[in-house]
């Protein structure tokens, strides 16, 4: 199997919060490099897994290669989620109810997500995930770790590697984090929640 890139055609769709220049470099130089690296690492193996399934079957690969595979796989999965949830769209009633149940209300959820993102040290991501108790959690992961490795299903994330924001915000990471909620497609996040409930039942 050869993994194909998820297309991102509208680099200027997120301005003024993220410039088309940043999006172009982020997608073509960073995301695609992880994808190319992953395909190169896997080309000698016979497998038929989705990228998500590959995480759960990593022990089938030689121990010496698992770290590189997981790092690049995480880079692909994390970027594809990030790009997919950018845009505009409304929360479903189902996810809205769940956010109210687990965080109190949407504003409390947003404040906690922003707070956690500002706590992350170095490179990584802040995620909204569904855990194995069917609860929503906000977690930070370093580098290119994926929540799937911990049995958690990611619904949305913010990329906190410097390449995601530094050209636009320089050292004002907090401003990038605050602006993030202006360009989240919560319709897509809601779709991810519905899929996650099904996935979690089968783990």
Care to describe what's here?
With 203 residues, the chain is mostly helical. The protein contains 8 helices and 3 strands. A hairpin with a 5-residue loop joins strand 1 and strand 2. The longest helix has 23 residues, at 20-42. The model has no long low-confidence stretch (mean pLDDT 95).
Labels describing this entry:
Helix Hairpins, 2 domains, mainly alpha, 3-stranded antiparallel sheet, globular, about 200 residues, 8 helices
Summarize the structure.
The chain has 203 residues and is mainly alpha-helical.
Summarize the SSE layout with pairings:
Layout: H1 20-42, H2 51-56, H3 63-84, H4 93-103, H5 106-119, E1 124-130, E2 136-142, E3 153-159, H6 166-169, H7 173-180, H8 186-202
Antiparallel strand pairs: 1-2, 1-3
Helix pairs in contact: 1-3
The CATH first-level class of the largest domain comes to Alpha Beta
The domain count comes to 2
Major pleated sheet: 3 strands, antiparallel
Q: How does the overall form come out from the CA principal axes? A: globular
């Amino acid at each position: 199997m050869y993994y194909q890139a998820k297309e991102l055609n509208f680099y200027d769709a997120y301005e003024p919060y993220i410039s088309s220049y940043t999006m172009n470099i982020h997608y073509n130089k960073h995301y695609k490099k992880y994808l190319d690296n992953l395909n190169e690492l896997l080309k000698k193996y016979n497998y038929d897994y989705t990228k998500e399934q590959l995480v759960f079957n990593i022990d089938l690969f030689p121990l010496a290669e698992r770290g590189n595979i997981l790092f690049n796989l995480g880079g692909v999965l994390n970027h594809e989620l990030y790009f997919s949830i950018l845009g505009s769209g409304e929360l479903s009633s189902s996810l809205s109810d769940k956010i109210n149940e687990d965080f109190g209300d949407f504003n409390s959820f947003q404040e906690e997500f922003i707070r956690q993102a500002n706590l992350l040290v170095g490179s990584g991501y802040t995620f909204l995930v569904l855990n194995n108790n069917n609860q929503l959690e906000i977690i930070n992961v370093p580098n290119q770790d994926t929540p799937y490795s911990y049995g958690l299903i990611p619904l949305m994330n913010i990329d906190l590697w410097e390449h995601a924001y530094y050209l636009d915000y320089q050292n004002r990471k907090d401003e990038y984090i605050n602006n993030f909620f202006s360009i989240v497609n919560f319709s897509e996040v809601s779709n991810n929640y519905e899929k996650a409930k099904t996935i979690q039942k089968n783990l």
